[in-house]
Amino acid sequence: MTENDPKSIAESATRLYEQGDFEQSARLFAEAALAYEQAQNLLDAAEMRNNQSVALLKRGDAQAALDALQGIGDVFAQANDVYRQAFFIGNEAAILDSLGRLEEAEQRYRDSEKLLDAVAEYQLRATINKSLAWVCLRRFKLLDALRAYGAYLKHTIAFMYFRTRVWFPSRK
Predict the structure, then answer these.
(1) What is d(CA 36, CA 148) in angstroms, rounded to the nearest whole number?
(2) 72-81: which pairs have CB atoms within 8 A and are 24 or more residues apart?
(3) Residue ranges of the chain with pLDDT lower than 70?
């Protein structure tokens, strides 16, 4: 792999993100996205833009994070990659939440929820439900907040059960 290889750039961006250097990681994720686009790999380019938006949000620039997502919304759907589509929508919801656009955030969290039901992804679903509960609470939709928090608990328990069953299968 060379320095201009998109996978190499993405790995560097991930390391910087994990070290808390969100500005540099966002820059490198954007660079990796461009390299993937030049290689006609739109799916991985969209993933890099999604990662860039997360780094920008962590840096505190929610509007730039939202701008980074422009134009990639349909890439995951067209590729029929339900997990990454749900992850993208959840990230978009978190950004909208950060911008105070609670009604839009609530809808996007619900959209992500529906997709995650299709792939039985309990850990991400729990995170989405917890965020949805908080948005509903701030919108004074108390019953919706309780339902979402209940779903958060349910999916957290399901994830823990599944993880335990995989790590420690029964001996029959």
Answers:
(1) 37
(2) 72/45, 72/46, 75/42, 75/43, 75/45, 75/46, 76/43, 76/46, 79/43, 81/43
(3) 1-3, 161-172
DSSP state of 141: -
Residue 37, token pair as written in the block: 């686009």
- Render pLDDT for 115-163 as a digit per residue (tens, 0 to 9): 988 887 778 888 898 999 999 889 999 999 889 888 778 877 777 766 6
This model's pTM is above 0.85: no
CATH 1.25.40 fits 1-72, yes or no: yes
Residue 126 to residue 20: CA distance in whole angstroms: 24
Residues in the chain: 172
Q: What are the structural domain ranges in the chain?
A: 1-72
